[in-house]
Amino acid sequence: MARATVHLLRHGLVHNPDGILYGRLPDFHLSEVGQKMAERMAEYTADFDIVHLRCSPLERARETMEPVSRNHEGVEVVIDDRVIEASNKLQGRVFSASASSFADPRVWWHLRNPLRPSWGEPYQEIVARMHEAILDAAAQAEGHEALIVSHQLPIWMARLAAEGRALVHDPRKRECSLASLTSFAVEDGRITQVSYADPCADLVPAKKGKKFVAGA
């Protein structure tokens, strides 16, 4: 039986003082706290039996991967567009505690259908690309472990699908914190188990009263 474990690591905290929904926009980098998160995850995964590394092309994901990859010398990091952030028609707009684009009537049309969703990439398409990437990583790491750095929504979609749960959800209830690890056990090309770890929980800043939008 072909077995592997594929870990999906969400990137660390991004420097985003204006509360912009950055989506796939370039030039959004890890903050100082985000860099600490990346270093902690490098320590956390240092003894994992990782033989394959894969990463979203966005800067915040690459910066999270960098210290992790240092602890697995000789393992090349594969950049994979399939694990990129979901596309979003609202990217570039401000959503913060003090200024929100939700007050703009032009935004409302994009929110008309949460089942698809109407504001961005369909959930089923996210699931399909993430599922392919996970199985490819599992095949590369047969008998060992692989690690992929991705983003909150793609990781959460992959988990919901693997657990047979509905894809439509309340974003506030996602169990996929910054620099957290969602792990998939794969046997013969089939995901058999999902687990979750949150080693950086104490580093995640509180949202209340702050211009803070959690990176996706």
TrEMBL record:
This protein's GO cellular component annotations are:
cytoplasm
| CDD domains for the chain | HP_PGM_like
Q: Which Gene3D superfamilies does the entry mention?
A: Phosphoglycerate mutase-like
- Listed GO molecular functions? phosphatase activity
Superkingdom of origin organism: Bacteria
Q: Which InterPro entries match?
A: His_Pase_superF_clade-1, His_PPase_superfam, PGM_Phosphatase
> Which PANTHER family does this one have?
BROAD-SPECIFICITY PHOSPHATASE YOR283W-RELATED, PHOSPHOGLYCERATE MUTASE
Q: What is this protein called?
A: Broad specificity phosphatase PhoE
What organism is listed for this UniProt entry? Propioniferax innocua
